Amino acid sequence: MGKLIKNSWALFLGYGILIVAHGLQGNLLGLRAVLENFNIIATGALMSGYFVGYFVGANVVPDLVGKVGHIRVFAAFASTASLSILLHSIIVDPYVWILGRFITGFSIISIFVVVESWLNDRATNRTRGKVLSIYMIITFVGIGLGTLLLNFNNPKNYEPFILVSLLLSIALVPILLTKRKPPTFKKTSRIKIKELYNISPLATFSMFCVGFIHPAIFTMGAVYGALMNFSVLEISLYLFLITLSGAIFQWPIGYLSDRFDRRIILVITALFGSILTVLCFFSVSVSPDFINLSTDWKTILQHVSNHRLLFYIFISLYAGMSLPLFSLNLAYVNDFLPKEKFVSAGAGMQIIFGISAMSAPFVCSFFMKYFGPNGIFIFLFIFQTLIFAFGIFRMTRRSTEENPDNTFTPMPRNITPLGMELDPDAGVDLSNKENKN
Known about the structure:
By secondary structure, the protein is an all-alpha fold. It has 19 helices and no strands.
């Protein structure tokens, strides 16, 4: 492990700084949009702009990297991302911000592709599992720290935007100064969506729903807090708890899914997620007088509600149930495939996720407009329940299958198909690089 970190510290450090900026940027814009009295639909549209750029970039950037190289792509789009956030601070207009978010999404996926292909080049068959673990830890810690940086300065000032730009620029330094030559880029193949559905209808449908759930949690979360009159500290705290809980719950849920029928774990987590969205809704929207309790219990509930303790507990548990669904779906579809197809299947699943993610914040904004801020939980409840219901249906149509080559691997939601090659079960031949590392 020590040798691995020594050989790859520049990549990890640069990526860590970048992901902190990434964690701050999206939430900062959501919060600022509310403070600027942007229409909730416009806010949803600008948040969707990021995922549109991300989706387009995922299909364009691999060819670009193959033509001009890793270093040029990384430097160009890290600079572009840095400039994009400054554009938001100079021109406060929803249409300009939608364009800016598209540029940011395109730039960020470009950087992720470069970093993950570089990490693949550094990894060997013996170390890629460790590389993926470090990558995932840095991702969740970085996003969590980024949300806490919302307290750096008033979101209505330009300083937080300058901070994001500085972090993105600083992230360039360690990666561009690395001594190792950039790897030869190989584009990852994909399995078609129709073929994926035939392989596993449940995993495919569930990933489509997760594409609505995860972007809504992470892009509309700050918007929700601002609309509910949470303080900046309260918003950053519950966003940090979401990230932390999502990371922690990956391992126990993954462990259980490897020991029992993976569909059962998927259905149970979806069910608990549905219940917790209801609890989140009522923890901040319903007066104790609405519930038939004694006066003493009403007083206690009112006190707890005033301090939002119940909301913090429920939203943290909800994140723990919903965020591992991404990795669960990947693991479940791999249960029906030979290991040499794991990466191409993962690339196809990313396309499915991206299709729904592009519209998720925009659609969620309609729920928040017509049902109030807590409409976000109605939106999340619908897709959690759809996963649960379809999972129950599929369990009556197919018997359990086990694949000894496959186990659950925790994955950050922003990982690209190149990063999926770091999965020790993926069957990628890295033996020719053993002597290089």
